[in-house]
Amino acid sequence: MVVHQSSDAIAQFHQWLDRLARPIEFASRDAFAHLPTVKNLSKFVSSQVLGALSDRVYPKAVEAALLNLRALFVEDQARLSTEEQQRRLLQAAGIVKSLREAAHDQRDGWGEPEPLATSDSWSRRSSSRDVGTLPIRFAKGVGPRRSSLMQRLGIETVEDALWTVPWRYEDRSVMTPLGELIPGMVTAVCGTVAKSTVKRTRNRRFTVLEVGLEDQTGRMQAVFFNQPYLEQVLAVGKTVMMSGRIIAGRQGWMVPKMDVSQYEVVGEGHESTLHVGRIVPVYHETKGWSSRQMRVLIKGLLEEHAADLNDTLPVVVRARQRLMPVQEALAEVHFPKAGADLPAFELGRSPAHRRLAFEELFLLQVALAARQRSVKMEKKSLQFQPRTPLLEKLVKVLPFQLTAAQDSVVREVFRDMISPRPMNRLVQGDVGSGKTVVALHAIVMACGSGYQAALMAPTEILAEQHYRNLSGLLDALGLKAALLRGSDKASVRKSHLLQLASGQIQVAIGTHALIQKGVRFQKLALAVVDEQHKFGVLQRKTLSEKGYKPDVLVLTATPIPRTLAMTVYGDLDVSVIRALPPGRKPVRTFLFGEAQRRRAYQILRDELRNTRQAYVVYPLVEESEKSDLQAAIQGAERLQNEELKEFRVGLLHGRMKSAEKEAVMADFIAGNIHALVATTVIEVGVDVPNATTMMIEHAERFGLAQLHQLRGRVGRAGHQSYCLLMAATLGRHKMSPGKRPTGNQEPASLVKERLEALVRSNDGFVIAEEDLRIRGPGEFFGFRQWGMPEFHVANVVRDGDLLQQARLEAFSLVQQDPQLSATAHQRIKETMLRKWGKKLDLGSVS
Known about the structure:
The protein is of the alpha/beta class.
């Protein structure tokens, strides 16, 4: 069957190649005598090659040759010299010859069913799998150049394009006739450009484009300043849609004028119905690729591939959740029907949006369920001793007793460690709740059972902090700990590596240096990862592979709302430490504007005069031309010379060498430095009980979760502590049109709302929920490497109810069919592995 399909495809390719070669051969004949008579050769060859590439998938060598052939005819032949035209024709003839040879060679991939389809169009393909893997560059109207533009929008395949939903919609179903425009009206109109003239001032630095628009009912004016290029775009005779506010024109209300907020050249024929007379989708754009072009592309893809889109969701799930088929959802989300609920579409809450969002969430939850099951089904050869004498000794050397909350989590960890399945647990607790002491108990059980343990932290400062806090206790138990950093001297590193490999070092504490090549453990049984969001799933996996399926314990001081925990940590068992150690006083938090700076400095000086210490945190290391932020370096100099001149001011930032950082931290811990000016390198891990004041400059530039982390650096003893939020540029930064608010582009009202949430509460979980509600999941995390899944449609804040339902359906499905081997589940498995297989290490599921 494959050979028959291949033969048909090759025969069709030969016919097409003969048609393409005729004008090339004719132009080259008789020493290029006929070249002047061949017109539009460039346009013909280029369009033919693009058409061929959009009709089917070829072996890689053939595809490359076709693209090289088109490259010879991208430029208009008439603009080239005669010699250059002749040279390119000779090259083209050589490529045509090689294509004929490739088509005759059955071994070159033509006989395989995957590279070559049997029909002339993708729309007849029987397998919908191609839509998920088919490069967008082969879609009609795209090609290599435009596909590179679309990659900026995250579109690599046909499926990516279909799932790139509009970010907003415009109701252009009703256009106001130009003769019915009235003052103050905000509306949309459609008409023909009757006049388009540019006027320039004498120095030619200022231009005014006057556009006259008319329809059968009347006329309208529009003026564009300093946009002379629009004279070509809004040329006379073109049909244009404009929207905006109506104001008085030069002739009063005889010819009204529009203050145009948006415009679009409509086009002609059937295509114009995509852009006016309906609810119109508006997509994110990039230079060279417009929303209008995206509409045309999506319409074509839906017409060609709707039949190929087999539904991933099982029929029973769709019925239970009352979800429409995927073809209907995609068609409706891109082109809403007349009378659709526009506000629901704008908010992403239409039935079509929710259908697509459910599928995205469902596939992720299936992946997480499969990963969790694969971990729990593993049998570990490790045998931990819950009654090791070292644990009894640990109780005696600890300078405090565990709280009830800490003790409860320690017991959960111990149960996991002595079970026959590997531990994969997350310990989530607020700043200062005692997660490290929980990890210490796990480390001691592992080492007391004859194994090694590793603790990995995201920064050298945090790794050094852990080493200082734990090495003394571990030494008292007879356990040797070592600190591994990327900045270690070669001799120190070599010594540590030898001792790790021989088992002389029982506990390794370090940064990502622990997962680098060359690091070998003798018997790694426990991997503790602190601040997991700073790493990512695959880095955690790399560390765990240093041992034979060791137990994994993840710590995080960033309170994660439940909906996010189900996505970011959905494959882990979760323990939460909610209670703080006794004697801790809540940190008092104040929000100050620039006018109240003197009061803030007075609080700071009062604490320092009371023999306490303080942090002053800046967002940047040094001044930038693109930012008006004060820098830590300049800030430290100013504080030392002015507001805090009676005290010693230190400086700590990420670009300092390790030895310099250690010296500064040692001086601060010893009390030799009274106020430490720092960047966010002190966000986690730094523990100086005598520090009672945290001043944060430009607090509006930080997320609430990060501010809460910074606030957690004080209040770590029984002293009353203070957090001073300095919002110097409150309300100064304006949002760009169409952009979601971010930490440095927020309306003043949102900035104030966020920061006041921190003033009101010391509960990290309450703050996290508020931060998530205000800023959304992307800005809540801020960095992709924190592990936040990327969705086209779903939003875990808006779609929290869908997420819970999707999780129930997914985990139930994996419980019934662990390997997704049933015929009805093959599509789920295939799509899930394509989207999440590599990201979540799902090799065992495939």
